[in-house]
Structures are given as C-alpha cells and as structure tokens.
Amino acid sequence: MPEKSKSSVVKKLRATAQASAYQKQWFFDLKQQVENGAEFAYLNADVPMEIFRAMDIPFVVNQWWAAICGAKQMSTKYYELLRQAGYRDDLCSYCATAFAESLDPDDRKTDVQGKPLGPWGGLPQPTLAVTRLTCDCQAKIFELFARQHGATFYAMENTVARKVPLDWFDEIEDNWESFYDTDRLDLAVEELKQMIRFLETKTGKMFDINRLAEVMELVNEQELWYKKTRDLIAQCAPVPVTVVDTINAVMQAQWQRGTRWAADHARGLYEEIKALADSGEAAVPNEKYRLMWLGRGIWHDFAFYQRFEQKYGAVFMWSMYLAMGADAYIRHNVQEDPLRALAARYIGLEDFLHMPPWNSRWYLQQAKQNRIDGVVYMVPENCMQAVEGSYFIKKTLEDAGIPVLIFKADPVDARKWNAQSMTELVEDFIENRIINKAGEQK
Q: Among residues 53, 208, 49, 212, which one has the least CA distance to residue 132?
C-alpha cells in the first residue's frame, strides 16, 4: 500500500469553499431530478456541454467525477473491482473511474449509520454517455460504462489540425475563424447539428439557438474574469494565493459554465484575490521560488502542493486550470453564429493541451509571464493523450533556462502514489536544480 500523507490541505479562499458547497448541493439536486425521471448525460470534458446547458439536459462531467472519487479515496476499491472483473490494471484512471464505480454493488447504499458508501451517495443512473473519439480506448470505456448503466452511447468525431499557429493564445479570442481550417470548422458545426437532432429525439426537448447564444456569452464572461485573475496573480510578488485554492475554485465552477452562478462566482474569485493583492497578502510569506504545475491535479493528495512552502519558500502558483480558462475558451462574435463559435471552442482543446508546439509554446509564454523558477510536470503513466509531447515541452522550457522535473503518477488512483517518495523527489529537484541554479546566477 502507498504511504498515506500525514498532512492536510489548507484552503484559504471563500470562493473555494463556496464552489465546493454549491457543487455538492447542485449534485444532490441533480440526483433528485434523475430519480424523478429526468434524462441524465455523462459527458467527457471535451464534449460541448453548452448544448446540454442550452437544452436544460442535466449532466455530469467525467473528469470532475473522477476527481471526486479520487478525493474521496475510493479509487483503491474501484480499481480492485476492475481487476476482479478481468480488466487490465493500467486503464486510464480519468476515463475508467466511473466505469469501475459502476461495478460496485454497494455504490448507492448506506452503512448502518446511514452514511453513503459511494462518493456523495454515488453517481445517478445516466441515460446518455457522450464522448469524442480523441483516444483509442476512451470511446470503448464509455461504451462499456453506457452498457453497464443501460444508457445510450454517443460518440462525436475528432479532427486534427493541418496548420499550427504557434502563438494562438494571442489572437484566438477574436480571430478564431482564421486559426482553423474552414472544412474542419464546417465538419464540427455539422457534428453539433447532428448531436442536437439526436438529443431532441432522445429527450423530447427542443434546441433554441438564442438560448445557446446566451449560454456562450455567459461562458465568455466567466472566462474573462479568469483571465483577469490569472494575469493579476502573475503580476504579484509574493503571490496572494496558490494552486490549492485556484484549482478547486476554478475547476468546480468550470463544470457550471454557461450559468449566471458560474459567471458571478468567477467575478467573486477575482475580487477576493484582488483584495488580498491590494492588501499585500502573501500566501507564502517567505516566498522565494515560484513553481509551475503541469498536468492534472493530484486529487487524492492535494496537500502535496503545500509541502515545500515552509522549508523552501517554494510556492505552486500556476496550473492549467485557471490558465486554460483564461486562454482557451473565450470566443467573441458569438451572436453572428453561436454554433460555429462553439465549434471553434472545442475542436482546438486537444491541440492546446496535448499537441506540441501548441502546448509547449503556451507553457513557455506562461512560465515567462509568471516568472517561474521551476516546473514540476506530472505525466500519467496510463494515459496516451496526456503524454502530450512531454519531451518537446521539457525541451522548450529547459532551452529557455527553466528547469523541469518530470515524474509519472496517477491523478486519481491512490494505489500508485507514495507521498514520501514523491515529496523527496520534488525536494531534490528544488535543492539541486532550482536553488543551485539561482545561486549560480548571483
């Protein structure tokens, strides 16, 4: 068994607690809707959820639910069920967690004290399971998940870029039409129309293009607040918050994007951090080194990010969660063609995150903007998508003089995590790569 951490995570922002409380109540309300007969969709993160939001179809996002299961320390049980069922022990945890949960006969039961045995009482029975064909195994896992729940499986096509704008983050908000091949956008729009027809037939609900435009504008509003927040933190020295707060506050609200609550929450997050910055608040009073976290969050051990603050003054102050919200989602000119703007939001997500030089150039730009001293890069050992050209990312950053530590771990499967050895690995990186480099430059 992996060694358990003896420390606990410390969250400081009201916005973080508010997001967690809202998301939990929303989930319980959703479960009630499903129990009352509502259609319920389980979506991968790169599925255009704005369509479901506009059509008022309840949904849960795969990556969020996997993170919840990891945070609730359920992965050991779930992955043992997968092994017992004869499946490989190295399936992608983000994609396979919900399928593994579906094998648990006790998931929706309670113990003798009435405490739910599954995370938050377990996932409701979905009637739809929707993913994109971005990975060879992802669609099959979703298909198995759908079969286990008696849900309808629906897959969307994925296309690959033929041209690579290196600094996409500078112009894509307004000039997204010129960043993609016209036929790629055309196909994506037709894919959206096809899914809308499917959902109308399946659920009996009608799609309203004007409602989609409203949802899209709310998403833009939310992400613009994230951009202001991201840029504010980058300017501060010392920083007023760390990734422990921003990841939790942003990720949970991102799954509510397209709602008035999410846009207002993003504004509240900015205003709270701005007030801390204006008062000179320091998340780590002895801040010496600014760290960038690349990869998914370590959901089963969030305290990991805070173990280097007191000893080294090393603060994890950047993650993709806030930064992607700032740069990847905003699409202006929505009213002209909401479906095309939505297509332009989604067809590039895999490029931005998983394809160099799209991702490597962006990471370098962000490292420079945030004055990063070192990068800690977690590459999941069981997800081909998340390998994402790690060689080229590391080379791009180190060629610019920014040291990078790459290690393999699993964001939700705690069986493969040893807190002590991982902490020692990062400590060695700080002492021998970052501190030594800083000393040499003096």
A: 49
- Report pLDDT digits (tens) over 248-297: 899 999 999 999 999 999 999 999 999 999 999 999 999 999 999 998 88
| Residues 217-222, mean pLDDT to the nearest whole number | 98
Given a contact cutoff of 8 angstroms between Cβ atoms, the answer to whether 403 and 432 are in contact is: no
Q: In the block, which residue shows the tokens 């939990």? A: 24
Q: Please give the residue that has the higher pLDDT: either 55 or 6.
A: 55
Q: Would you tell me how many other CB atoms lie within 10 Å of the CB of residue 64?
A: 18
- Tally of CB atoms within 10 A around 243: 26
